[in-house]
Structure formats: structure tokens, C-alpha cells
Amino acid sequence: MPVFISYSHENKEFADKLATHLVKNNAHVWIDTWELNVGDSIINKIQDAIQSSSALLVVLSEASVQSEWCKKELSAGLVRELNEKRVLVLPLLLEECEIPIFLQDKRYADFRVNFDSGLKEVVDSIARVTNSNQGRIIEPEFNMDWAIDWGYRGELFELNFTLIEQAINQPFSVLTQVQVTCNERATIRYKQYEDLSLDWLGRLVITESLGSLTENQDFRLILENQFPKRNQANTTTRNSSLIIFQS
């Protein structure tokens, strides 16, 4: 789930710099200048982004506290915070300004003097309220919660995906669990990423490789019973509980 950045366009240079540094710290960021395209519905895109975000970073400046757009984004974030009973809105103080009344009891990340110290506070705070290894996909007809975990099964690296699809206006949910076990060659490649502290990139490479395996192929889900199926071949089947990833 992304981190939404709410800011006044008068502070665009700061917001872009902040977003860039957050991405370098492995955060998934939603910022309008990166996500909005010509022809997009601004209201709908921002509304969906706030609704699906794991945190709302509110950049406080003289311009933003006067901005009607920023006020609406803050209100939406505070409503979610109240409904979900968890910390969601994280204020960032860019310059001296009149802090909105509903943020006055919150501690803010201070960017007034030093960008790096403020960034560290934001990164630490995001880590406490978000998890880059789980999230939610929102579609008109369903919501899908997903989570990823990983480890070693013996000498081989393994990724585990858990997907819970909740159909809108339907009395059922669908649970899908996928285990991806790498062969020796793929495991060696992952360890190379791991040694460079780029293990997150190694997992991304494996996940994207799975997507390429299914391109231009007809995969159909066949439910024979409640028991998992195991496939030891070099092919991938949707009804298998174990997928062998060949590099």
C-alpha cells in the first residue's frame, strides 16, 4: 500500500525531493505529479489513492494550510484514522505556519532546519505504521488483500504469497496461497542480491519472472477438492500449491 503525500504545489520542489528520498528508502509513494496522467479524473484518482494508502504524509506550510485541496485531503485522512482507530496521518512541518487544530496534538517531523533529520523521522514513522510486504487492491467488484513472506526451505529460497479476495455484495471470500520455490541457480542469484542488501529487488525479480511465465498461456482454475496440488515439473499451474521457479 502506498504512502500518500499531501502538499501545496507551491512546495512542489520539496515534495518531489521527499518522494525521491522515500523511494530510495524502499517506500511505495503516491504523489500526484507521478501518478496523474492527462485525462485522469483528479478527484477520483486522489480519492482512491487516499482510501488505499497505508499512511498520509501532510506537508505543513503557509500555503498548504490555506489550500482547499490540502484541507480536503487532510479531512479524508482523519476520517479514515478515526474509523480504523490507528495512526494514519503523519504531519511534516516545512515552515512556521498555523497548524490545523486536529493536528496540534500530533508530533510532527521537523524539516524547518535540517532535511535529513526530518527524513529520518518520516522513514522511522512510516516503518511503524506501514508494511511494504502486505497491502490491498481495490476494484469495483472486489477487494483483494495480499501478503508476502519468504525464507529458505533447506538450501533453496522460497517465496510465499497469500491472497484473500473479497467479492463485493457476495457472501464468500476466496483464499489463495502460493509457494514459490527457487531452484539452485535462482537461489544463488537471490543470495547475490542479498549480499548487496538488495534482497527486496531479488524478490521483485522473482515475482516479475512469474508473471512472464504466464504470458500468452491459457491458465484455468480447477477445484477438484479442498486438498492442495503439487507440481514438480518446470511448468506452472494455477491450481498447484507449489510452483517451481526455474531461472
Description:
This protein is of the alpha/beta class. The protein has two domains: 3-129, Rossmann fold, CATH 3.40.50; 134-245, no CATH class. 35% of the residues lie in helices and 27% in strands. The protein has seven helices and eleven strands. It has helices at residues 12-24, 32-35, 42-52, 68-84, 115-129, 184-195, 199-213; strands spanning 3-6, 29-30, 55-60, 89-93, 109-110, 134-138, 142-153, 156-167, 173-182, 229-230, 240-245. β1 (3-6), α1 and β2 form a beta-alpha-beta unit. α3 (42-52) packs parallel to α4 (68-84) and α6 runs antiparallel to α7.
Sheet of most strands? 6 strands, mixed
As a percent range, the share of helical residues equals: 25-40%
**What's the count of strands?**
11
CATH topology term of the largest domain: Rossmann fold
**N-end to C-end Cα span:** 28 Å
- Which CATH architecture of the largest domain would you pick? 3-Layer(aba) Sandwich
Question: How many structural domains?
Answer: 2
Structural class comes to alpha/beta
Give the SSE string: EHEHHEHEEHEEEEHHEE
Report the CATH C-level class of the largest domain.
Alpha Beta
Rg of Cα set: 21 Å
Shape: globular
Give the number of helices. Answer: 7
Low-confidence stretches: 233-247
Average pLDDT rating = 82
Strand order of the largest sheet: 6-7-8-9-11-10
- Tell me the name of the CATH homologous superfamily of the largest domain: Toll/interleukin-1 receptor homology (TIR) domain
Percent strand equals 25-35%
